[in-house]
Design goal:
This protein is α+β, with helices and mostly antiparallel strands and about 250 residues long. The chain is about 30% helix and about 20% strand. It has 8 helices and 8 strands; from the N terminus they run αααβββαββββαβααα. The strands form 2 sheets. The protein has a 4-stranded antiparallel sheet with strand order 1-2-3-4, with helices on both faces. The chain has a 4-stranded mixed sheet with strand order 5-6-8-7. The protein is globular and about 55 Å long. One of its GO terms (biological process) is translation.
């Protein structure tokens, strides 16, 4: 394992609010949106990593899972989480190791997802495992890895390979059985499949989550007037070429 801090990388402080320019970023900057849960509720895309820093900057921890050479460049796999229900995974390829890690951290912050936790058996104490069996796989290319997360009794711990175990720990899952098949020696695909399984924990809601939710306006609709007032467009001046006299 490689620590991302070894490359001299530090977390972006809360002062980065000054660089937020998207609609979501301006609402976060002006404290109109006060938690990540409001963003997840309306499925708003996070396009600036500073949005994640505002809410989780002090508690986020990152770790480079692997740095591997690809042709003439380096590919970095970085996991990030706050050990309290939020986890992200980023992959970046660059000519320099430090640049690859920095880019992977940024992508991990953009892909951070909430983690639903549940119980095995009686509902005693805090949620400690996954709420149900979930399966994740590598989408896209030809990845063959398939990871299945299975609820486990309290005190079992995380029964898994080192890479999925690290991601599950960052997701604040204390007890979990895992089952994996395919070419699990490919670390990148194993990490992606584990992250996909964790992100699916909110795809199924148990009856105890069947609470009535009062639908409200999207932040973009609720704060339309505020967005119009704070919008600073950049005017583009076009210069016309002088007319050529023809005889």
């Amino acid at each position: 394992m490689f620590k991302a801090e070894a490359a001299g990388l530090t977390e972006v402080k809360l002062k980065t609010r000054s660089v937020l320019v998207t609609k979501l970023g301006r609402l976060v900057k002006d404290m109109k949106i006060k938690s990540l849960e409001e963003i997840y509720l309306f499925s708003l895309p996070i396009k600036e990593s500073e949005n994640t820093d505002v809410f989780l900057g002090a508690s986020l921890q990152d770790e480079a899972l692997k740095i591997m050479p690809v042709q003439t460049r380096f590919k970095a796999f970085v996991a990030i989480g706050d050990y309290n229900g939020h986890v992200g995974l980023g992959v970046k390829c660059s000519k320099e190791v430090a640049t690859a890690i920095r880019g992977a951290i940024t992508l991990a912050k953009l892909s951070i997802v909430p983690v639903q936790r549940g119980y095995w058996g009686n509902k005693i104490g805090k949620p400690h495992t996954v709420p149900c069996k979930v399966t994740g796989k590598v989408t896209g290319r030809c990845g063959s890895v398939l990871v299945r997360l299975i609820p486990a009794p309290r005190g079992t711990g995380i029964v898994s390979a080192p890479v999925p175990k690290k991601i599950l720990m960052m997701a604040s899952i204390d007890d979990c059985y895992t089952s994996a098949r395919g070419c699990t020696a490919t670390l990148g695909n194993s990490a992606k499949a584990t992250f996909d399984a964790i992100s699916k924990t909110y795809s199924y809601l148990t009856p105890d989550h069947w609470k009535e939710t009062v639908l409200t306006k999207s932040p973009y609709q609720e704060f339309t007037d505020h967005l119009v007032k704070t919008h600073t467009g950049v005017s583009v001046q076009r210069t016309q070429a002088p007319a050529v006299a023809t005889t």
